[in-house]
Design goal:
The chain is α/β, with parallel strands linked by helices and about 130 residues long. Helices cover about 35% and strands about 20% of the residues. Strand 4 and strand 5 form a beta hairpin.
Length: about 130
């Protein structure tokens, strides 16, 4: 899986922590980004996924996904869109500003992705001891 965040936070950028993001520019909040930055980032992400060929590219944040790829009605979960030959999965944004997702419902959504990958033979099934 290749997890793609929205953009690096200021602390992540300052300390050099690496993650793949839709938009590379660091900022305190995702709402500081322009629609054009999202679209440009979406194009760059598609090139990156085509090059790296992960089994599951997963974009964290449905609003970021909608803006970056022009899919205004996208919902959290598997998408019809393909990048690098594989379907994309959209996950909820874990930001504290995204309060309608509880830790429980967020964990369930991440588990759905893990199960889809396991069902496709791309990831081990969850260890029952980890529940």
């Amino acid at each position: 899986m290749l997890f793609c965040g929205i953009n690096p936070g200021l602390m992540s950028a300052a300390t050099g922590l690496g993650i793949t993001n839709v938009v590379e520019r660091a900022g305190a909040r995702a709402d500081e980004l322009s629609a054009e930055e999202y679209r440009e980032g979406g194009r760059a992400l598609e090139r990156k996924v085509a090059r790296l060929r992960p089994q599951w590219p997963a974009v964290v944040g449905v609003t970021a996904y909608r803006t970056a790829f022009g899919e205004r009605t996208a919902q959290v979960g598997p998408q019809e869109r393909r990048m690098g030959g594989t379907r994309v999965w959209v996950l909820p944004d874990p930001s504290g500003l995204n309060a309608h997702w509880t830790p429980q419902t967020m964990a369930e959504e991440y588990a759905r992705l893990r199960q889809a990958a396991a069902d496709a033979g791309h990831a081990p099934s969850p260890d029952p001891r980890m529940r």
